[in-house]
Amino acid sequence: MMKRGIFFAVAAVLALAGLFYGSPYLAMQQIRAALKAQDSAELSTHIDLALLRGSLDQQLHALFAAPEVAADISPTVIAPLLDTMLMPEGLLSLVQLNAHYESPLSKVSDVSGRQRNGEADYTLHYTSWDSVVVQRAHSKSRIGELTLSRDGLWRWKLTSVALPRNLLTDT
Predict the structure, then answer these.
(1) What would the pLDDT profile of 101-149 be if each residue is shown by its tens digit?
(2) Strands of the chain, DSSP E
(3) CA dist list (Å): 93 to 88, 99, 139
(4) Which uninterrupted H or E stretch holds 165?
(5) C-alpha angle 35-89-43 in degrees, rounded to nearest 5
(6) Which residues neighbour 57 within 8 Å (Cβ) at sequence distance 6 or greater?
(7) Which is more confident, 123 or 55?
(8) Which has the closest alpha carbon to 77: 90, 63, 95?
(9) Is 116:105 a contact under the CB 8 Å cutoff?
(10) How far apart are alpha carbons 136 and 28 in whole angstroms?
(11) What is the pTM of this model?
(12) Contact 47, 91 (CB under 8 A)
């Protein structure tokens, strides 16, 4: 009887540990489902707007300070650009940024000529106890790399999207 109790206790601890470790994967699946459905309201529930705004603001300031851009574009456009990026439609585009700058491997036919599944594959890895990075599998760049941060014990929120260095010079 005691062995059965210990077995169930160990099984419960392992199940909780699995749920704890797998929680960012679940969050990413929910984000992918919202993107596929083009559901900006659902997507916004998985975003920490204050942290995302701060991250994008910092990246945009760095981009506008670049010598090839600084002479042509005034940094006063950062605030309206940031507001546009954080609108529902802007968020959908922002999270899918990598697809614009790098053709996904999933669109390429394999050696036999069969078309691969159209959904992009993503890899997720922990960078710390409360932060994970999600990037397109087989990507050659950090463009569109998503950072999710822990929000409580089980929930995760999007806090950063890596912008391309040539965002302002690209047409």
Answers:
(1) 555 444 444 444 444 455 557 788 899 989 999 887 776 667 778 899 9
(2) 122-128, 131-136, 146-151, 155-161
(3) 9, 9, 18
(4) none
(5) 40
(6) 78, 82
(7) 55
(8) 63
(9) yes
(10) 12
(11) 0.75
(12) yes
DSSP assignment of 17-65: HHHHHHHHHHHHHHHHHHHHTT-HHHHHTTB-HHHHHHHHHHHHHHHHH
SS3 10: helix
d(CA 8, CA 89): 47
As given in the structure block, the two tokens for residue 96 are 């899918």
Do 170 and 164 form a contact (C-beta atoms < 8 A)? yes
Tokens 């929000």 belong to 151
- Calpha distance 64→161 (Å, rounded): 17
